[in-house]
Every structure is written in C-alpha cells, then in structure tokens.
Amino acid sequence: MSEGKPLPENPAGPRSLADLFLSFSWLALQGFGGVMAVAQRELVERKRWLSRAAFLEEWAVAQIMPGPNVMNLSLVIGGRSFGWRGALAAMAGMLTLPLLLVLLLAVAYGRFGTHPAVARALRGMGAVAAGLIMAAALRLSGGLKGHPLGGPASAALAVGAFGGVALLHWPMPFVLLGLGSVACLATYVRLDP
Amino acid sequence: MAAPGTFALHGWDWLQLFGQFLLLSLLSVGGALTTAPEMHRYLVLQQRWLSEAQFSNSITLAQAAPGPNILFVALLGWNLGMNSGGPLLALAGVVLSLTGILLPSTIVTHLASQWGHRNRHLRPVRAFKQGMAPVVIGLMLATGWILARASQAGGKAWPLGLLTAATALLIWRTRLHVLWLLGAGALLGVLGLV
User: Fold this and answer.
1) What is the longest distance spanned by two Cα atoms in chain A?
2) Could you give the maximum distance between any two Cα atoms of chain B, in Å?
3) N-terminal to C-terminal alpha carbon distance within chain B
4) pLDDT digit string (tens) for A128-176?
5) Which is nearest to B74 in space by CA: B107, B48, B99, B111?
6) Would you call A92 an interface residue with chain B, using a CB distance cutoff of 8 Å?
7) Range(s) of the domain holding residue A164
8) pTM for this entry
9) What is the DSSP string of B101-170?
10) Domain range summary for chain B, segments of one domain joined by +
11) Is B113 in contact with A132 (Cβ distance < 8 A)?
12) Are B42 and B22 within 8 A, CB to CB?
C-alpha cells in the first residue's frame, strides 16, 4: 500500500512547537463528535502540511496502533517534524482546551443534571453518539473492498468481532488478539512478498 | 457524595485503576472508544465504582463537546473522584485516568510509527496494517452497539434504537453536520419523544 519513494519531508510543515500546539488546538476545537473529518480538511487542504496520500498513510498507522486515533495522528505528525517534543506539543494542543471545556460541561451537568429534561436530552444525545461511532465504522468499511482477503472473508472477520464483543460479551482484548492474529496471518499469506 | 449504588475508591483502588488503564491503553487499537466496553465491564459491572448513567453520560458529554473522544476517559476519572470525595479527588482522577490511558500507547505509537515508516515496504508491516482493518471495524460497530444499549437503559428502547440507526445512516451516507444530529437528539429527548 505504501510502495514507492519516501514522503517528501513536509514542504510546508509546522514551523515551530508553538505552531504545532496552536494548530492542533484550533483543529480540536472544531471537532464536534470527533476530530477525524476536521483533521483531513485542516491538515491536508488548508494547512497543506501533508499530501492526501501521506495523510492516508499516517492515518492507517494512527488507526492500527494502540491509542486514540486522532491523538496518534497528532503525535505522528508532530513527531515527524520535531521528534519527541513535537509529538508532545501536538498532543498537548489536542487535549488542553477541549479538556477544560469538557470539565466545565461536567460541572454544569453535576449542577443541573438531575433535572429530568436534562437527563432526557442527554439520553437522546447518547443514542445519537452511538450512531456516530457506527457511522465511522461503516465509512471505513468502504476501504475493505480491495482487501487482500477478499470481501466475504474480511466481512466475516468484522461480523465475528462485532458478534463476539457486542452479542456474546467476550472481553475485547481476547477478540482483538485472537481474531486479529488470524486476520494478520491470513493477510500475510495472501500478500505478494 | 457517591452516586447511588456505587462504591468510593480508596488508596489501592486508585493504583488498580491506573494499572487497568495502562493495560487498556496498549489494547486500545482502533481508537479510544473500542475500550469503552471493557471499561464499562470493569468500572460499572465488576467494581461498581460508577453508575450506568455516569458511564453513558461521560461518553455523551465528551461526544457533545469539541475535541478528541478520548476525553470521555477524563470524565470517567472525574466521576470516579466525585464518587470518592469531591472536586479535588475528581481532578486527581482526571489526571490519573488520562495519563494511564495515554502514556503506554503514546510511547508505543511514537516508536512504532518511526520504525514502521522506515520499513513500510516489508511484508509483515503491510500484513499488519491491512490485516487488522476488518477486526477494527467490527470492534467499532460493537462499541456503537453497546453505547446504544446503554443509552436505552431507563428510556424508550425502540425510539432510541431508531434514533441511533438513523444517525448511523445519515452520517454514513450524507454530509450532514454532526451538531444538527446531536441537537436533534437533545430536542427529541426534551420533548419526551425518545
């Protein structure tokens, strides 16, 4: 998937640690219900820190590695320009202001949350939030079309992981390690050396 | 101070919590929310440190606010501290939870991304990147399912499930902004329709 020459070293990359911190703060503050969609628009189309192909490559790493996707994305981009300090500056930008905001929300909720209308509103928003995650999964499933294992086998793996965790209540780590290693081995066999 | 039916955390409990989050951090492949089912099992069902409502509200508030979804873990820590004493412990809970869930994954991802970038033509690297994709997608769907079930606790299961399904379809198929749907969910809730 990532054949060919290495990525150009970010021709218009972040200028400084402060630039990283502020850019990721601004990005995070725009991300309602998740930052992913905003990240692509901001980093690729507006700031041009990354080409579209480079973004996809970094995104695959961020997606596959442990840790929150968008945090991983920020740390990979920050790390590529300024090493460890860049990774930390980018992550701090993603977290600081949104954390303050969400804690203010929590305090407000602690004060007004027992009001039945607030509880009902949150329940409705909770149902929407669940749908947002499902939609993200469905969007990503489009990427399975060209999967080395083929459509049916990769769909079966996805359904198996879903059924094991959601319906049979197996612990997620078992499913991840068990089905994940089967999937990686099978993919390894199918890939051209 | 504790929510009804929950226990406060004392001394060693915090350490145990920190250890659990460190471990989950390494297993949080596919995003923070894929660990939500395991956190729910541990914090709500097993230890009874959080109520069902506190758990699902933490996720909902984090989703409603701007920023990375991982902030739901900060809110879990906040609620754990509030159940155990008050605002000061709650702030400690925020720092402890966020550090626990982020530290190991950050180290691993930073090292691995640099190694993987240098070796991205290797067959095992490609097999790992592509092989995990279907499992990750299945786990994300499971997370959505479990959150949907949690939001239905104490509410009208049918209309709430329909709202979840409609949201999934609309966000998947259209370019509608998330805020409209969160607003619609809140409005339907206030009106007592879901």
Assistant:
1) 61
2) 56
3) 30
4) 888 888 887 887 787 777 788 888 999 999 999 999 999 998 877 788 8
5) B99
6) no
7) 144-193
8) 0.72
9) HHHHHHHHHHHHHHHHHHTTTSHHHHHHHHHHHHHHHHHHHHHHHHHHHHHHTTS-HHHHHHHHHHHHHH
10) 12-131
11) no
12) no
What residue in B sits closest to A155 (Cα-Cα)?
Answer: B134
CA angle B173, A73, B131 (to 5 degrees): 70
Pairwise CA distance, residues B142 & A153, whole Å: 18
B44-56 in b/e form (b: 16+ CB < 10 A) is beebebbbbbbbb
Taking the Cβ of residue A173 and every Cβ of chain B, the question of whether any pair is shorter than 8 Å is answered with yes
Residue A124 lies in a domain: no
pLDDT, tens digit (0-9, with 9 covering 90-100), for B112-165? 888 877 887 888 888 887 788 888 888 888 888 988 887 787 778 899 999 999
Q: Is A154 found in the same domain as A88?
A: no
- Distance from the Cα of A141 to chain B's closest Cα (Å) equals 7
The closest of B49, B40, B41 to B72, measured between CA atoms, is B40
Interface subset of A 8-37, CB within 8 angstroms of B: 28-35
Residue A132 falls within a domain, yes or no?
no
Distance from CA of A61 to the nearest CA of B (A): 7
Cross-chain Cβ contact A144/B152 below 8 Å:
no
